């Protein structure tokens, strides 16, 4: 079968031919219908050799959807032909966090060498994908896999980040979204659907801000040296009740901290390497700073339900598996509107 793999440190991914996976007891084989392209992939492929821990060759893709092709011995409650989405943050399934559906915070995964697909285990950018356990599959039903596969991360991650701040986002509140790309443009829609907040979106050019307005942002500002003052003007000098940084570089983290109101939330989602300075006088009074990771299985089910109700919709650009390397070139160049999706067989 064909697969898009990261083969050599520092080199772009390649389309290669590899054996089709064989199903073992308790496993599920999917025929992949869609795989999302994420900045996390680019981050992994940018690591120097002494920091790279994901194994080579690595089949990319931690956002996946497919049709059940084959069931391993002992698998129940699934049928060949079922349309499913893949819950990506795999855990041990035994610890307290996993028992609560929060495998994204599994306490045993690192020690036991458990890796998410595309981030250590073979991912979804292939014609077929092996799933370690049926609990990592969520029914997709009649949702279009190509349009909705990115919700497994680009929807789940902002949903998880935003849910924890909802008590602070009632009527009259303000939420700031920094970065309106793959995750941010979905985050704006989630905020508009679930909160009473006025949503202020920040990004680096007018094209990205146009997307923010298109998906529901009330205000769209350039992310520059004037952004904090503009946010303060919009909030009567108070600042934002919650700031969600989907970029995470040092300038955006600094902006997020400076824009937060007293008792506000700062949530750093992006993996740009920025670090928040926290301490008396360095941040507003009683501001909470969080750095969440992905989301729970239950939250993925909730995000897909939002999609069924028309509350969230991902802007996508489609690529064939053969053109997968071009998707990463476009991602690196910053020319993707929303999320790139690879469609095997297209």
Your description of this structure?
- The protein is of the alpha/beta class and 346 residues long.
- It has two domains: 2-153 and 295-343, Medium-chain alcohol dehydrogenases, catalytic domain (Quinone Oxidoreductase, Chain A, domain 1), CATH 3.90.180.10; 156-290, NAD(P)-binding Rossmann-like Domain (Rossmann fold), CATH 3.40.50.
- It has helices spanning 39-45, 96-99, 109-112, 145-148, 156-163, 184-194, 206-214, 227-234, 250-259, 297-308, 324-333, and strands spanning 2-6, 14-17, 28-36, 58-59, 63-71, 83-86, 128-131, 137-139, 174-178, 198-203, 219-222, 240-245, 260-268, 288-290, 316-320, 339-343.
- The strands form three sheets. Strands 3, 5, 6, 7, 8, 15 and 16 form a seven-stranded mixed β-sheet that branches.
- α8 (227-234) packs parallel to α9.
- It is globular, with a radius of gyration of 20 Å.
- The two termini are 14 Å apart.
- The model has no long low-confidence stretch (mean pLDDT 97).
Keywords:
346 residues; alpha/beta; Quinone Oxidoreductase, Chain A, domain 1; Rossmann fold; 2 domains; seven-stranded mixed sheet; 11 helices
- Relevant CATH superfamily of the largest domain: Medium-chain alcohol dehydrogenases, catalytic domain
Tell me the span between the first and last alpha carbons. 14 Å
Q: Which spans of ≥5 residues are poorly predicted at pLDDT below 50?
A: none
| Mean residue pLDDT | 97
- Extended strand count: 16
Q: Within the CATH hierarchy, at the fold level, what is the topology of the largest domain?
A: Quinone Oxidoreductase, Chain A, domain 1
Morphology: globular
Element order: H for helix, E for strand? EEEHEEEHHEEHHEHEHEHEHEEHEHE
Report the top-level CATH class of the largest domain. Answer: Alpha Beta
Class based on secondary structure composition and strand pairing = alpha/beta
Specify the biggest β-sheet: 7 strands, mixed
The whole-angstrom Rg is 20 Å
Helix proportion range: 25-40%
- Indicate the CATH architecture of the largest domain: Alpha-Beta Complex
Compute the number of helices: 11
- In percent terms, what proportion of residues is strand? 15-25%
What is the count of distinct domains?
2
